[in-house]
Specification:
Helix content: 10-25%
Order of helices and strands: HHEEEEEHEEE
CATH class: Mainly Beta
Structural class: alpha+beta
Shape: elongated
Distance between the termini: 77 Å
Number of domains: 1
Largest sheet: 6 strands, mixed
Number of strands: 8
Radius of gyration: 20 Å
Strand content: 35-45%
C-alpha cells in the first residue's frame, strides 16, 4: 500500500509540475514581442515596418501573419512560415517592409487602397523540450493605410 501511495504522490507532483510548465507564457522565457509598427504607404511600394522584440535564447518558432481590412474586418492575407530557430543576435533589416515581414514572394503584396491592421503570432514549437504543448503569443500592429 505504501508503494501505491508513493506512486500517487509522485504522479500528482509530476502533473502539478507539468501544469505549471504549461501555464508559463512564451514572453516569460522564450520570446517577447514589443511592437510591430507599419507605416502608411502608396499602392506602388510596400510599407516600411519596424519591429521590437526580445529573443531570450535560441528557440524553435514559427510565425503567422494575418492582415485584415479595418473597414470590413475581412482577412485579406493570411500567411505563415517556419519553424525556424530564432537567435537572440538576429536583427530586423533596417529596410524591412511588409512584403519581407510576411515572407516575401508577393504573398500579401500588393494590397488595395484601404486601412489595415496586421496580427502577427509566434509559436514556440517545443517548449521545455516538447514536454508541454506549443505556446503562441500574438501582437497587433498599428492601423496603416495604403493610399491610391
Amino acid at each position: 500500500m505504501e508503494k501505491v501511495l508513493r506512486f500517487i504522490d509522485l504522479s500528482v507532483f509530476v502533473l502539478i509540475m507539468w501544469g505549471m510548465a504549461s501555464a508559463i507564457p512564451p514572453n516569460f522565457i522564450w520570446f517577447k514581442p514589443i511592437s510591430v509598427l507599419i507605416a502608411d504607404s502608396d499602392v506602388g511600394s510596400p510599407p516600411q515596418i519596424s519591429v521590437g522584440r526580445i529573443i531570450y535564447h535560441p528557440v524553435l518558432m514559427s510565425y503567422q501573419v494575418a492582415i485584415r481590412d479595418v473597414g470590413n474586418s475581412n482577412t485579406v492575407c493570411d500567411t505563415s512560415g517556419g519553424p525556424f530557430t530564432y537567435e537572440p543576435s538576429a536583427l530586423i533589416p533596417d529596410d524591412a517592409d511588409l512584403e519581407w515581414w510576411v515572407g516575401g514572394e508577393g504573398l500579401c503584396w500588393p494590397l488595395n487602397p484601404g486601412t489595415y491592421i496586421a496580427e502577427t503570432c509566434w509559436t514556440v514549437e517545443k517548449p521545455f523540450w516538447g514536454l508541454v504543448p506549443p505556446k503562441t503569443i500574438c501582437l497587433n500592429s498599428n492601423t496603416f493605410t495604403i493610399h491610391p
